[in-house]
Write a structure and sequence with these properties.
about 280 residues, alpha/beta, TIM Barrel, 8-stranded parallel beta barrel, two-stranded antiparallel sheet, about 35% helix
Length: about 280
Amino acid sequence: MNNPCIICVAITGSLPRKANNPAVPITVAEQIESTQEAFEAGASIVHAHVRNDDETPSSDPEKFAALQEGLKKHCPGMIIQFSTGGRSGAGKVRGGMLPLRPDMASLSVGSNNFPTRVYENPPDLVDWLAAEMQTYGVKPEVEAFDLSHILKAAEMYEKGQITDTPYVQFVMGVKNAMPADRHVFDFYVQTVNRLFPGAPWCAAGIGAAQITLNEWAVAAGGHARTGLEDNVRLDRDRLAASNAALVQRVVALCERHERPVADTVTARALLGLADGG
């Protein structure tokens, strides 16, 4: 069991189902069912948003609570990671679910361009979200859309705003942000290894870049994120049948690169998280 790979599944994003893929889970019940399938396929982390009845993104803590309850019941031990990103609302509303004490939460530490807007993460909001995560014992996953975000994570770690060794995820392939560039990816890995020796890291590719980043991460010894939030296709012509199908692709990559898939106990140990009991 050398160098296990943690697979994170991002089960749903912000686009309406009709504009995305019929397999994208919208209701809490659908999200629980889809996550359970992905869990059984090999995912040990679930990255989750919630939706309103009209399929628009929601910041309702009650929906997050219902989702967390169902995930704990049907996916025992799975690491629950809630999103505090812009899809979860505006301002401090984005952290409204943190008192639920999920295992992890995403933390975007800087702003960048998205396809049609600026993804705003002002310093005061970043500081507040980080403080809330410390208050409620939630491990942040730093979402790095740019090199400066990795350096910002190092600064926050030095200041004590991130108390555990940072877990950084590179996000590549967002239109108008960082493309899926292998030279940049390699430099990201070198930078994390220099700033946080021995720390685990993850990579996520958006759209067609998903499978590319999955392979780069698995081959380079990192961890991988997949799921319908980031990409709704298996290839150019076929929609993905489910989140589980995308997880299975990563499992196949792990087999190819002779890396075991981390179960929840292993994933929790690698990330310094308490057991899921």
